Amino acid sequence: MGVVGLSVPRVDGPAKVGGMACYVDDLVFPGMLHARTVRTSVPRGRLSGIRLDFDPAGFTVVDWRDIPGRNCTLHLTDDQPCLVQEDIRHVAEPVLLLAHEDRDTLWSACVQLMEERGEPVLDPAAASHDHAHVLISDGDVERGLRASDLVVEGEYRTGAQEHVYIEPNGIVAVPEANGGVTIHGSLQCPYYVHHALVNLLGLPGELVRVVPSENGGGFGGKEDYPSVIAGHAALLALKAKRPVKLVYDRAEDMLATTKRHPSVVRHRTGVMKDGRLVAMVIDVVLDGGAYVTLSPVVLSRACLHAQGAYRCPNVRINGRAAMTNTPPNGAFRGFGAPQTQFAMEVHMDRIAEALAMDPAKLRLRNVLRAGDRTATGQVLSDSTAEIVLREAMKRSGWRRKRVAWKGTNRGIGLALFRHGAGFTGSGEVRLASRCTLTTTERGVRIRVANTEIGQGTCTALSQIVADALDVPMDEVTFSVPDTADVPNSGPTVASRTVMVVGGILERAATAMREQLGTLSPAEHFARHGETNVTREHEPPPGLHWDDQTYRGDAYGTYGWGCDVAEVEYDPVTYAARAVKLTAVQEFGRPVNPVLARGQIEGGSAQGVGWALIEEVVMKDGAMTNAQLTNYAIPTTLDMPRVETVMVENPYPHGPFGAKGLGELPMNGPGPAIVNALRHVGLDLRQLPATPERVMEAARGRA
Amino acid sequence: MAARKRTPPLVEMTVNGEAVTVDRAPMVRLLDVLREDLHLTGTKEGCGEGECGACTVLLDGEPVCSCLVPLAQARGREVVTIEGVPADHPLKRAFVEEGGAQCGMCTPGMIMAALSLPARPSLDAVRAGLAGNLCRCTGYEAIYRAVQKAASERIGGAE
Q1: What per-residue confidence (pLDDT) applies to B159?
Q2: Which chain A residue has the Cα nearest residue B97?
Q3: CATH topology of domain A31-119+163-256
Q4: Nearest CA in chain B to A250
């Protein structure tokens, strides 16, 4: 027996294909009100008054004075108000909340905000305040640059990206008889919402309950923002003493919620004629938006991945997340690493060009191998960078196409990348995640706070528990991650669910097996009643990290990938089209190959969109194309065919050899596609490569 | 003669094979009638502007975005939603087995659109036929595999 490694059909599949899965907008409670958020229209300024031009009968109205606890949406810090009191820092900042039982009446209510406009900061380069800084220094870069044969410089830019989960954000808040509140909604991290609400509402923890509903896609977009919406819905529900549904429509979701951080990355690299990298100076600027939210940790991951998949004795990485007057940017699959590895990978192709060397050969000369050190001083216990690179070259017919297509309108380009799995540095130790297994009359149930957001959490974790406990899969159930029932096993982010949470569950199941002896969980339950086994995260032995100096083991392990993109360029329309993507990725071992392949194909699609068509157009601090009509994501006709290759390299400290996977595939397509366009003779250094940008590049086409 | 104030006429239609009568304004979206009046919440709203296809249903056998169809246009016609597709339909099974559903939000609409494909669709036909349905999770490859697997099963079973 054994189900790990098999493509067990996803356990939530039948409900989803049948239309029975219950998402937040499908929830109805007796007496439920609909709600709406009134938002600012200026990017910076002062709120001097609010005028309600409607008959208030039947309405519940909430402003900052109705907040019983502290007026902030607490996350890493407390700088973001839940509702604007006076100071306006971005467009679409929430000011006032309305609820009414009739949706048409609700939306016909007219509210006027008196806003005094201030001077916004919209260019991160000109920002006077930063949310965070990171400095990573190794060796002596000045000496390294002097000793080099050649110094190559470049600046690379990426734009914001909208998550476009197909289900917009939404929350239903239900007031409870005990004075507390229960939150149902589309969210990734129930305990983040719990933490924020306890602070906002001034309630003891046991009076706040968070019950995730079915999640119609997250990708990081439902990591921190649901705390904002849950706060709003809870304030209304507690004031109205009735359930309140606050579901955004697509336009509001795109206008108000988080995006991938836009980036500007500058490289100055010293290199020898034979291709050896001697020194790297990397400056990273992320546009954080108006409040801190997650920017410090996004910046951290961005900087820790900025040197890409290459060894170099002298490295200095200097990063800052600038404060600007736009809605806060936040978590999006990859979490900063796609931005900095885009810069590194496009820069590598420019170095190869400067040396008249094949880009793959340059990479092979510098690739991080087991035993090599990264810029934080981490000695890699394993690396499959060279293996995935060689496999991708072989699978894609790299050498032949690289020669045959030269001078044509077809191009082939590659990108080599990595992704650290789990929280950065000491993050997992600080989280101290806990997981519980509980026997039931039918078997065992998994109690963790991690959410099924489409990636396959409930299936993959059930497979791990089934094998570690040596029971059939159908004896394992996955409980709703209701904060009233499950321990805090940390957020569903950072490619950590299978590797970290799955690892804790594996140990819990092994311990439970010892406790049960030869009995099945159901037999044990029948004789002894319910039995619980809880285990806490234990870091792999020998890991060290220093937050102050940014030295040590930034991640327990890395996944590695190499993407090869094949593009066609139309010199009449300037459209660049991706026709094939070969995605070779190593993430330990797949727990469920169909699900893993889905992560690679889906992550690659988001990378293709980011590379070619997804452009957030900002004007005066607001997204002007906040509709799916003019913010396009890839359709079936935009997507290249994706050939997926999973390279196995079991990780000794992951459950059944698994590492994290979810974010890794996001890192490759952007640079691979732009490098393929370079092969066509188009010098692009910015994403997305829209026809307008390609046209600019075509003016200088070699 | 001044028009008398009239209540809107009841709308009769067939939904998933059953005759239903709906007492709503004629310009109400079919999507809202399905979800709120008939409690058929398997049909999803992703954008409300006909771009994402999550609300796809069959209207007289043709896939339409129910967010763009006013109730009046459904009068006397036949509507099929995901709830009207048998649980053991090869498409539903194949979507589960091949990973065609991840978060599941696009899935009902995607399956409704896939029902309108030719019996033995080429890959190009699948891509063209599903181009109006956005999926943010899968990158579509698993959906192609599911649709083609279901097509081969259906044909295998029929012949």
Answers
A1: 35
A2: A9
A3: Aldehyde Oxidoreductase; domain 4 (3.30.365)
A4: B47
